[in-house]
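Entry 12.
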Amino acid sequence: MTPLPEHEGYKEIIGDLIKDLADELELDYESFGSTTWKKEATLAGSEPDNCFYFENERAVRGRLDIDFAQDPPPDLVLEIDITSKSLDRLPIYARLGVPEIWRYDLGILKIYQLRAGQYQETDISLTFPSISVKGIPSFIVKNIVLGRRKLRQKFRVWVRQKIHQKNNSA
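Predicted 3D structure (tokens):
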């Protein structure tokens, strides 16, 4: 099935904002886009809309030969649900061992964390616990008319403000 421009647009915008967030928090990362991931031992395979390594970035840095038989799964998977829903794929991601999934659907970002072999919805990201990432869709809606470059600039300012607020309240 050919992805719709709406699907690809949100995939790219949210993917860029994840990278901007990592940059502002000084987190190293690797992004592998919509790579098809397979794990023969659990008979699981999926192709996310985007995926990222943060905690396990060093294990895959500079590599193009990742093998789930020996390498960790991505730390974060992004799914954009426009025409098809990714909920049916959650058990597959669980068998792959993906710790966190972000699901964007109808302007709402839902965060799922893998706990005891099943995903549970949560308000806090494992990857970015200090920032309320569920605010990303409302940020996008308010700023999308600015264009991609200005949206990303405003997002970085927003992240810096959140970091500053967090540091001053601690």
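Annotation: The mean pLDDT is 87. Strands lie at 30-31, 37-39, 44-46, 50-53, 76-81, 100-105, 108-115, 118-122.
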